Amino acid sequence: MNIIAIDCGASFIKATQFSYGKIVKTVVKKAPADLDNEKLRKSEEIITEIIEQLSAGLDEIHIGFSNEMHGFVLTDQDGVPVLPYISWQKELGDLEGCNNLFNPDLIKATGMPLKLGLPSVNLYYLIKNKQIELRKQLYFYTLGDYYIRVITGQQPYTHATNAAATGLYDVAEKKWITDLLKEILGDDGLNSVIFPEIYQRQKEICIEKNKKKFFFYPALGDQQAALLGAQLENEDEISLNFGTGAQISILSKKIECSQEYQIRPYFKNYFLKTVPHIPSGRALNVYFNFIKGMVSEFVMVEDETLWKYINSQARKNRYQNMKIDMSFFSNAITDHDVGSIENIQEGNFKVGNFFDSIYTQMADNVEIVYKKLGRPFVDKILISGGVLNKNDYLREKVLAKFSDVNSVYMTKNETADGIKKFIESITGRIQK
User: Fold this and answer.
1) Could you tell me which residues come within 8 angstroms of residue 254 by beta carbon, excluding any fewer than 6 positions away?
2) pLDDT band at residue 432 under the 50/70/90 scheme
3) In the structure, what pLDDT confidence band is assigned to residue 220 with cuts at 50, 70 and 90?
4) CATH of domain 231-410
């Protein structure tokens, strides 16, 4: 069986071709930033070109997607976007208005405490500010579902991992929450915005083109796809995923709602207890780009070279009294979105001390989140995402927060592997 796994990330579109369970080829393309309508079309072209390239010489191809969660596209009935893609990074509106409007019991049913950037909050803002016209019929898609709609010309099914990330889905009942949609859209709008059918088994989309059969499967939330590929399987395991943002997760058989974490659908009747929006690569790059900007005024240097220098200096740090706050964006750690640097002294204001203090805060954040999750016993740690995988010194600081751990598993290609495993589970064709 030939599988193409396409991960639509915030920075890159990465596609991996599998043949009989083995990786044949990987293609990585830079994703257009800030997906306005023109850049959405560009990303569609990139994905189409990738599929054509990786399917050359094949008769039957199975295609799966994952995408960054908490984003959505609104289109007309022809699949043409009426607004640019609304990502989780677009924190529209305010929580006070939503907290006053939304029924708390309905929010509890989503497993998602209200946060800026959630589609439920952003959608309410767009309607309240008349940025969308509800007199026309509109279609709501997550990013991966939208790409499937455009490529196949057919209405996709939404997987629970993506539906839940909207803050509009009942994790226990496994359906859209009509009453919550009514509060957001109003009675008239409820019939004007069409949400995709929730995925059930054996509902892939099949199209034929140039004598080839293409099977498209519902897009997965990127976190669940990565954790499936990383083999998160038991309740005594913890996942540390540090990419653009960071998420820390453990498994649970129960739906345990809390303001401290989110409950997300997973596989094999498990749920994820997840704390997202932990400062990671996006916040770290604020400080890195500051250093790079100064250096670039005098000499050209590759990012990798500069990171090696920064980390070599960080390891030499002997000062522990500088304090760095990475809260540039709303996050799960602090109640503010402003960064800061404290306790600067003549002797400690050096690049190495600077970044060592940043890494110290990132490790401390892991411990804070660990407590939010109830400090479960951890036998195995799963590390994924480029930030922890690539930064040895940061990883050492983070792992020092755990004791009595028997194994640490660092993953590569975990998202592609997760998409592959999902498709194999549907088809019943497990390949190793």
Assistant:
1) 271
2) low
3) very high
4) 3.30.420.40
| Full-model pTM | 0.84
CA 384, 36, 196, 142: dihedral to nearest 10 degrees? Answer: 10
Among residues 53, 67, 42, the alpha carbon closest in space to that of 17 is found at: 53
Q: CA-to-CA distance for 294 and 217, rounded, in angstroms?
A: 46
Average pLDDT for residues 407-424, to the nearest whole number?
91
pLDDT in tens, 187-216: 777 889 999 999 987 678 999 988 899 999
CA-to-CA separations, 78 to 37, 44, 140, in angstroms, rounded: 14, 15, 12
Q: Tell me the per-residue pLDDT of 116-131, one tens digit each, with 9 for 90 and over.
A: 889 999 999 998 888 8
Tokens of 375: 């400090």
Domain ranges of the chain: 2-221+416-427, 231-410
Q: What is the pLDDT of residue 76?
A: 92
Q: 209 is written with which tokens?
A: 């083109």
Residue 289 pLDDT > 80: yes
Burial string for 372-396 (b: 16+ CB within 10 Å, else e) reads: bbeeeebebbbbbbebbbebeebbe
DSSP category for residue 86? B
Per-residue pLDDT tens digits for 172-190: 999 999 999 999 988 777 8
Do the domains 2-221+416-427 and 231-410 sit in the same CATH topology, yes or no?
yes
CATH 3.30.420.40 assigned to 2-221+416-427:
yes
Phi, psi of 97 (to 5 degrees): -60, -40
Q: Which residue has the tokens 């509109």?
A: 138
Beta bridge partners of 40: none
Beta bridge partners of 86: 72
| Phi/psi of residue 185, nearest 5 degrees | -95, -25
**Rounded CA gap, 15 and 357, in Å?**
36
β-bridge pairing 60-67 and 73-75? unpaired
d(CA 177, CA 417): 31
Within its chain, how far is the Cα of 251 from the centroid?
17
